[in-house]
Amino acid sequence: MTLTTDKTADATTEHASAETIHALAAGLEGERHEPVRLAAHGLHLAYDKRTVVHGVDLEVPPGAVTVIVGANGCGKSTLLRGLGRILKPAGGHVELDGRDIARQRPRDVARLLGLLPQQPLAPEGITVADLVARGRHPHQGAFRRHGAGDAEAVAQALALTDTHELAGRRVEELSGGQRQRVWVAMMLAQDPRIMLLDEPTTYLDIAHQVDVLDLLTELNRTRGTTVVMVLHELALAARYADHLVVMHEGRLFRAGPPAEVLDADCVREAFGLEARVVPDPVTGSPLVVPVGRHQRRA
Amino acid sequence: MTAVDTAPPTAAPDDAAARLAAARSGLRVDRRRRRVRTSVVTSVLAVVAVALVVTALMLGDFPLAFRQVVDVLTGGGDDIARLVVVEFRGPRLVLAVLVGVALGVSGALFQSVLANPLASPDIIGVSQGASAAAVAALLLGGLTGLALSASALAGGLAVGLFLYAVAWRGGLAGHRFVLSGIGVAYACASVIGYVLTRSDVQEAQAALLWMTGSVAQADWPLVRLLGSTLAVLLPLVALVARPLQVLLLGDQQARALGLRPELVRAVVLGLGIALACAATAAAGPVAFVAFTAAPVARRLVGDGGLALVPSALVGLVLVLGADVVAQHVLPADMGVPVGVVTGAIGGPYLIWLMATLRARPA
To answer: Fewest CB atoms less than 10 Å from the CB: which of A268, B24, B127, B185?
Structure first.
């Protein structure tokens, strides 16, 4: 248990092994989650008067990883915000655990459902430890202070996201990748049963992208956490999704297992891109290979 | 350790344990460092505040020795010293303290909830609204004393409500609130100018003194009134401090963490407006205190928190210090009101703030 100081310099870049993550995730406080149902019924979402999502019906499979993909401006982030009750429906409703999410107490919802927006804000000067600890807010009462259980949850969140050496650093001093992992840590500290993440891999290099997705998968497998995320990278989406949702012009275009959903027709219609879809050499999941205008083999 | 003991028996538990240990010790170190810095800042400010209180009680036409002041404060002292401290200097001193605290906390609430260093009651028209109402009440209605204070309170609250209505568009837009407020401040200034030019010079002089912000008119009933108002408002501020801290993460995050951002913002702004109006009603618009106190306190503490207690202390030190300077450092026959001194500090401070503002990282 002694902490060697000569290791600390590298530790922030040293990725946790799969076994380490498993050991940490399995040791998380609390029981394995009973999956909670989340569903949208005839959901319309609008900014001012401009409707962005038109009547989406979506059952999020409990205890699975759902990935939402689609072209820019197709409403995928908006749908995620609607599911996370950040945006009030212009029509239809979202059900969490069988009841309208808008009628539940915000704090109760926050214990079940976490959301990481695309560009979260950190107050100037705040340290990583302080920020991640704020994820505990839904578990604390108006008078209950930060307790030992909270501190342990924060420590585990830091260890799981490779940010355990950054506790005392100011968030604004971190690199984009470190900051992104700190935000994921904050949501882990919140410890919701459903995690909604809007492009959690932005700003991350390829190795850290895979790290974050592996971590979410691990939480899903060991704890039964339901994960719903918006991703841009189709190869990663197809690889990590149990359930793939393709959005097109504010509507649900297709949904199902990636192997059934993602084909050349789908990519052409949803993204306006000519592509071949081949089996991923590593996993066999569909791999979208774009056909550019200038790179076609003669 | 319990967390690790349940892990499967591979080589990984060692690494997992090491990571957890590192995280735990990092959290402890960070917590301790922040706590130490906050307590050092708070204690230093408190010592400065106490020193100022004692100094203010010693100085005057009838100078008292340090010993005499301490005797009176600890419940002893001779009759003359008691009379000087309790009846002559006491009300003015306590009023300065209360006004400083109210303005410091008010500024901290405004600036954090609107995420804008310019969002302070003395910049966005709340104080000006209170002044305009008070000056109109004084010169047009002939009101004085408590009625005058009540009009000031009403004026400030009216501006606050007006700004809320103007800036509301399905949610409160902070920048719209601030910019509309600057417009309101000018409109109020023109109301004040109009009323003043229509009035007789003697009366206008009295109004002018009030408008500069002064604690010279203090008596115990006024102090008691402001004191009991703060006794109601400050505990409410302590209650909203935690949700406000979460709101600093932005509306989306706050909502995701189970907060109602609009509700928290309305309560916090209401408290900020009430505090600023109460202080203004008692002492007139003492310039720049609400504006300066919180940023100075936050720089001293430097952890991105609210720094409410340090802000209150900085406000206290500013108002009391400025009043000591106004009374005893500037020539005696000038009778300078405290607002002149705080204004003279505030202008250069704004320039310094702009010159040293850190560029926000992308």
So the answer is: A268
Q: Which of B10, B252, B258 sits opposite A86 (nearest CB)?
A: B252
Rounded Cα distance between A86 and A100, Å, is 14
Question: Tens of pLDDT along B134-179?
Answer: 888 888 887 877 788 888 889 998 999 899 888 887 677 778 888 8
Q: Helices then strands (H, E): number in chain B?
A: 15, 0
Backbone angles phi, psi at A201, to 5 degrees: -105, 5
Contact A11 B298 (CB under 8 A): no
Q: Where are the domains of chain B?
A: 37-354
| CA dist., res. B303 & res. B299, Å (int) | 8
Cross-chain residue pair B4–A81, CB shorter than 8 Å: no
Averaging pLDDT over each range in B25-39, B128-142, B286-300, which range is the top one?
B25-39
Predicted confidence band of residue B325 (pLDDT cuts 50, 70, 90): confident
Alpha-helical (H) ranges within B248-307 are 251-256, 261-283, 289-301
Residues 228-287 of A with CB under 8 A from B: none
Residue B237: other Cβ atoms inside 10 A: 23
Strand partners, B150: none
CB contact under 8 A, B249 and A121: yes
B111: left (phi over 0), alpha (psi -120 to 50) or beta: alpha
Chain A residues closer than 8 Å to B250 by CB: 117, 120-121
Evaluate whether the domain defined by B37-354 bears CATH number 3.40.50.300: no
Whether residue B359 is predicted with pLDDT greater than 60 in this model: the reply is: no
| Tokens read off for A23 | 């050991």
Which tokens hold the place of A228? Answer: 């719903």
Distance CA B154, CA B137 (A): 11
B-contacting residues in A 119-158 (Cβ below 8 Å): 120-131, 134-135, 137-138, 140, 142, 151-152, 154-156, 158
Residue in B236, B252, B298 to test binding to A, most A beta-carbons within 10 Å = B252
What is the predicted ipTM? 0.82
Measured between CA atoms, the residue of chain A closest to residue B14 is A1
